[in-house]
Amino acid sequence: MTKIQDTPATTPLPTVNARIYPRGGLDILSRDEVARLRGASTGGMHDLLRRCALAVLTTGSTSDDPRAAQELYPDFDIEVRQQDRGVRIDLVNAPAMAFVDGVIIRGVAELLAAVVRDLIYTAIELAPEYADELDTSGGITDAVFRLLRNATVLQPADPNLVVCWGGHSIGRDEYEYTKSVGYELGLRGLDICTGCGPGAMKGPMKGATIAHAKQRQRRMRYIGITEPGIIAAESPNPIVNHLVIMPDIEKRLEAFVRLGHGIIVFPGGVGTAEEILYLLGILLREENARLPFPLILTGPVASAPYFEQIDKFIRLTLGDAATGRYEIIVGDPQKVAKRMAAGIGSVREYRLAQKDSFYFNWSLDVPLEFQQPFQPTHEAMAALDLHHGRKPHELAADLRRAFSGIVAGNVKEDGMRRIEQHGPFKIHGDKDMMESLDALLRAFVEQRRMKISGDYRPCYEVVA
């Protein structure tokens, strides 16, 4: 049991000081790792560690403003101290909502330990001595593998992990539908992986918990994969029992497609569109043409127009071949689960034939252009090549970057600061493509899919 010490609150909201002794991977660290942890908590990584730790300590928050928690708890701080056996985490003015009767909630303590674990391991994996390796596609994939292995989410068992993508800002009907799909998946023994936040990331996990309990399944995995720029805006939902913080959005996306055995896409906003374009861009490559990868787009009946618009945009930009890589199912959770279970069965047979692992998709070819981190500056956004005549996977890569930039402008602190200083991003391209993009984005705004907190002000301007 994690022990804490209560002290009087010093901020407007109730807070406590805590002394935590994490168990698991953090109690068998090397001296070098402990030294790096200590450096991370006091040096250049301190602000990042503080923001990520505050996010998990406010798990369950419905805000998507990355600065909200920091404004509510301005005096919060965290420090990692070396002990004879592992480490100790000291929290100062931590949110009282993370504690019950003076004891930190066990799930929150586990997520906090995951934050410390992943940030220190990332500091090692992405250290300067690995720079040459990270310039190659294979080197980046190896780094993603090691990060996931260190997080203990790679398990040599039969394929059963479904990645669920979708928006954090969705309507009640859509949320209830995601729970229904999660329930049907859970009845079939399938585990859930999402982006770890609220909305369509929480619903499938919540539905699956009931089904897993009915099936007396004892080892359930509810994996949440995030990255530092997102976690502060989308705190993990309370159901996540395996949190993984990847260093950037590109490695986060690669982790999803390497780890999952199939993907379900629920209604969402620009982040969901980014994920769809990322996966389709990869699947459209000739190297992946025969690779089984079940991909289902689904939502309640009322969401049919949403998927029609997404499908229309994909046909215009990437061609009809792209639409052949996914299936749209509306208003039928049981059918979704049956199709996904059958698709994962095909994945199992293919991996056996190819002698590929069940726990990490080595066969999937992910080119360097989908792996290199994209910094959404105004110059980079304006320079995106969004024109017809390009190879579909190349166009998909730049379209993915366009949506990624809008995500940054919407919910990431660095992106929001750029917009405040220099105005909205300008996105250029062929007229018909820009008109379709503008219509899609306007629909997201009208349907309130861009943001939960406050009125939405576009961080972009589409220029034909």
Give the tags.
globular; MCP/YpsA-like; seven-stranded parallel sheet; 464 residues; single chain; three-stranded antiparallel sheet; alpha/beta; 14 strands; Rossmann fold; 46% helix; disordered N terminus
Number of helical elements: 17
Radius of gyration: 21 Å
Give a quick account of the main beta sheet: strands, pairing sense, barrel closure.
Answer: 7 strands, parallel
Would you tell me the structural class of the helices and strands? Answer: alpha/beta
- Binned, the helix content reads 40-55%
Compute the number of structural domains.
3
Specify the overall morphology.
globular
Q: What is the CATH architecture annotation of the largest domain?
A: 3-Layer(aba) Sandwich
**Which regions contain 5 or more consecutive residues with pLDDT less than 50?**
1-11
Tell me the number of strands: 14
Strand content: 5-15%
What is the fold named in CATH at topology level of the largest domain? Rossmann fold
Description:
By secondary structure, this protein is of the alpha/beta class. The protein has three domains: 111 residues, MoCo carrier protein-like (MCP/YpsA-like, 2-Layer Sandwich); 229 residues, Rossmann fold (3-Layer(aba) Sandwich), CATH 3.40.50; 92 residues, no CATH class. It has 17 helices and 14 strands. A seven-stranded parallel beta sheet has the order 9-8-7-6-10-11-12, with helices on both faces. α6 links the parallel β6 and β7. The longest helix has 22 residues. The termini are far apart. The N terminus is likely disordered.
